[in-house]
Amino acid sequence: MEPSPLSPDHDQENSCPQISPGEQHTDTLFVQARHTVVALGSMLAYTFRSPVESYHGFAPTLHELTMGLMGSSFQPDRDIVDLTGKVIFVTGGNTGLGKEAILQLARHGPSRIYMGARDERKARDAITSIQSTLSSSVDIRHLPLDLSSFDSIRTASEIFTSECDRLDILMLNAGTLGNQAVTTEAGHEIQFGTNHVGHFLLAKLLLPTLLNTAALSPSPDVRVVTLASTASGTSPPFDIMTSATRLMAETTLHRYAASKAANILFASELARRHPNIMSVSVHPGVVKSDLYDRATTSPVLRYPLQIIGLAMRSVRTGALNQLWAAGADRELLENGAYYTPIGVIWRNNQYVVDVALGKKLWDWTDAEVRKFGF
Where is this region: Disordered (predicted)? Predict the structure, then answer.
């Protein structure tokens, strides 16, 4: 089922003035322009509040800036640990960062990789493309998954647990950006519902398998890597974040920011509740990927994003931070932390340190999915 918009109240009285399509289009452009100015203003304000974190979120790393002369580097072929026998699950794995992550992880001997994706044809094409670049075949399986649908998430988790009794790396990579103000089937704003609530439910259903895998070793190395964003710095507060009606009154970029703030809160809270699972959130940088496709269809957002696109990372370099979190030596990571590229920790990030808010959002989200029997 496609996400449906909240139904607004319409005044049906005949005396209401009729608005021509041209006037409606002009009004829509005006609203979009105003929303864009507000959102960009919020991002600029965040940049002034947190200049160093913003720099690391948007600018090249020191290693990139000096063309390898300074700073630390991360090379997946060299630095990802041996993954022999391990099972990996990547959401949104058929394109962009997720596909690149699967490609690089597949080169280190995992037992199996699950590619969570909605479109079967695209997933099959992605698997074929990945296999063609590997020196030896790896067991990569498509798992149908629509994170805006609780039924799809339930089915995906049931298929996974029927086929696998272990899960070593769960990469919550999928995301959506720049959507219209619509809701998921469960009634959550589409970006918040997909990027946060959907991933929360998937992680909840797979948590027993993650915990069982961690219990198999006295020195467990089970990881959950959640993709976040520095856009989280412009998120509206909790009471707006968790109200579909109020959140949908915000700009599309603020709605996205809310979902990314929730991703950081979730990752840190998971680490506090289950310290034997390494749970971190990562910002990949500003990456030229399919995520921006929907946003660039807006006549207002198109040109600002095209300008920003000149400084965007490629998918190959954009995937390095999540690959570092998933595959670097475990001792390099700090549980519950938030990282900007590549492996730069931000211990004082507002959503990492706000323990009360992390618990509050976890409990709220858990109550939301419980309404549907989860």
Answer: 1-23
